[in-house]
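Researcher: Please translate sequence to structure tokens.
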Amino acid sequence: MSMTDFFNSVSDSIAIEQKLEAKMKQGDFDFEQLGNAQSETGENTAVCSNVKANDSISGKAVTEIAPAATDSVKAKHLQATELSAPYTLIKGYLNRAQQVALLKEVEDYPLTRPEVFVFGKHHPIPRSQVWFGDKGCDYFYSGLFIEAQPWPYYAQKLRLKLEREFGLQTNGALVNRYADGHESMGWHSDDEKEIQAGTDIASVTLGASRDFFIRHKQTLQKECVNLESGDLLIMHWPMQSDWEHSLPKRLKVDKPRINFTFRCLIPNYHKLK
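Model: Translation complete:
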């Protein structure tokens, strides 16, 4: 099932997509013209922050960044315990029309399924992916060297939206496509050496809802976050040092999920070595 077919199964998405295509043909369409989440869907965006209220996140206090997602946001701040993972979850960050715009663009992404070498054998990864980034922001992880591809139009718009609303400085995005619940991501941390120290990582979900697990490296304490289409999860520094995360298989899920993970790399890191 394609991403377009997935959203066509939702009745009100058909009208949105028709308007979207008309605007794109006219050449007068921009990501921000689609308005905020409440005006398009009639739903309120909810913000849950799993960090202490007096913590400074990307140069802004949590109490300051939460309402930035939308003018009429409903914010719920959760006080962190000693072992709470430092993340902020914003439900419904992208409205339906913005999701459709990105999903239509994803259909033309040069997604690949590279092989990793594990226990003496080559295995294709259980998902497809592509890495977009600024010039010189190549990425090496899981034994794979990935050269940055030029930014697509709407992915770049989403990157700039995150920077404007949350002060997130990023120069690359890993896009993963999970065809259905049989495809997954194992336990790992986004702690590669080329990632700029002290920076946050933003994850945007499109398509099928999936369970996202977080586990403390020492205590093995787990948290489960259900990520739905349009949700934004910001993993604050230094979460990657103490916690790891995964997207396990969910065999009952029969629809695709797309995930954009925006990161800040040290430019030309591999050329400087």
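Researcher: Any highlights?
Model: Helices lie at 3-8, 11-26, 37-41, 62-65, 96-106, 153-166, 239-242, 269-272.
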